[in-house]
Amino acid sequence: MLEIYGEKINSHLIIGTARYPSLNILKEAIIASNSSIVTLALRRLSPEKKEKNNFWETIKELNVKILPNTSGCYDAKNAIKTAFLARELFGTNWIKLEIFGDSYTLQPNPFELLKATEELIKNNFCVFPYMTDDLILAKELVNLGCEVLMPWGAPIGSGKGIINPYHLKIMRQRFPNIKIIIDAGIGAPSDAAFAMELGMDAVLLNSAIAQAFEPTPMAKAFALAVESGRIAYQSGIMPESDLAQASSPIQGVPFYHV
């Protein structure tokens, strides 16, 4: 099982709840994914609108762990305010901290991220920081008290997969006791499997399932891919070689000279 901030989780796949064709398909996809954590934006809550109440009722029926996020924030001040509102609303001190620095790539702002992380940890939040794959930023976040790092695989919604596996491998080696969750950029189940083969602890994704032609079976595909990648990493993947290596012994094999 995956243990995050002292809580045991029975899945290494975390999924988002946005951009699904319907609430029913969202519900089916969450069930098919076997995910026990879903993330959602606080700004989606609007008790005055009936359709939003339907959304929350659907989520509540699934009995999953809620990971609120601060999506849409561009500075530490607003992200901190959103985190406090989320804790009051959902009764959880978990927060997925997203602070964008660029509206085109949605790349996180590392400076505002560090400021917000420091303040939230002082106020007993369990911070899940959305970040790039920068090793120095990772070090600073861990020094502040983060037990989880959430580097992107690629920009949000791009579906490009893992664009810099080298950085992620180094991050895994440098922080063996920190949970590392790939957040953003995953496009295909093979991307999720690859992330897990690199030693990541979990994968968080949204668009790859929500925008699939058939979200429910795609959610199942991702669940299997994450499990497969995790087992492969734990089993020890054979090292690469630049030369061919025969799998059968060559001793006793006749050689013919032309």
Describe the protein in words.
The protein is an alpha/beta fold and 258 residues long. It has a single domain (2-235), classed as Alpha-Beta Barrel (TIM Barrel). Helices cover 41% and strands 17% of the residues. It is built from nine helices and ten strands. The protein has an eight-stranded parallel beta sheet. Strand 9, helix 7 and strand 10 form a beta-alpha-beta unit. Helix 1 runs parallel beside helix 9. The longest helix is centred in the C-terminal third of the chain and has 21 residues, at 215-235. The relative contact order is 0.14.
Topology:
Elements lengths: L1 E3 L2 E3 L3 E4 L6 H11 L3 E5 L8 H12 L3 E5 L6 H15 L3 E4 L12 H13 L3 E6 L3 H10 L3 E4 L13 H10 L4 E5 L5 H9 L4 E4 L1 H4 L4 H21 L23
Helix pairs in contact: 1-9, 3-4, 4-5, 7-9
Question: Quick gist of this model?
Answer:
This protein has 258 residues and is an alpha/beta fold.
- The number of helical runs is 9
Helix-strand sequence? EEEHEHEHEHEHEHEHEHH
Question: Which architecture name does CATH use?
Answer: Alpha-Beta Barrel
Going by CATH, the homologous superfamily would be: Aldolase class I
**CATH hierarchy class name:** Alpha Beta
- The percentage of residues in β strands lies in 15-25%
**Domains (count):** 1
